[in-house]
Amino acid sequence: MTKNNRRHALAFPIDLSSSLPTGAAKEAVTVLGRRITNDVYGPGEIMPTEPELAESLNVSRATIRDAIKVLSGKGLVRTARRYGTRVRPLDEWNLLDS
Fold first, then answer.
1. CA distance 29 to 6
2. Domain with 41 in it: what CATH number?
3. Could you tell me which of 8, 17, 25, 82 has the fewest CB atoms within 10 Å of its CB?
4. Tens digit of each residue's pLDDT (9 = 90 or more) over 13-49
5. CA–CA separation, 88 vs 98, rounded Å?
6. Backbone φ, ψ for residue 84 (5° rounding)
7. Residue 2: inside a domain, yes or no?
8. Does 60 map to a domain?
9. Cβ count within 10 A of residue 27
């Protein structure tokens, strides 16, 4: 490994593609993201609970949690205890993310 390659490897030690969900969680992110962007769940609105979302998508609650984490990271939703999961306003979304 050359000096430049080592420097590059140290600068990017994490494989970013591995942090994105796969399988059912990826599908849940896609479906929930589309529901949000199509105003099924509007800005400021409280989304259904984890059990309700899990039942509607026929997946586990853990899968829903993973999907919500991704959507939260992209700025589409905000979650908090006793607050629920709420859709954030469009101007707070990370629109540079594909």
1. 35
2. 1.10.10.10
3. 82
4. 433 344 567 789 999 999 999 999 999 999 999 999 9
5. 18
6. 80, -170
7. no
8. yes
9. 15
- In the numeric block, which tokens belong to residue 12? 């990017």
96 by Cβ neighbours in 10 Å (0-12 / 13-18 / 19+) ranks as exposed
pTM of the predicted structure, to 2 decimals: 0.74
Q: Is residue 8 part of a domain?
A: no
Q: CA torsion angle for 24, 26, 32, 38 (degrees, to 10)? A: -130
Q: Which residues contact 86 (CB under 8 A, 6 or more apart)?
A: 44, 45, 46, 47, 77, 78, 79
Give 56's Cβ-side CA count (13 Å radius).
12
What is the distance of C-alpha 59 from the center of its chain?
15
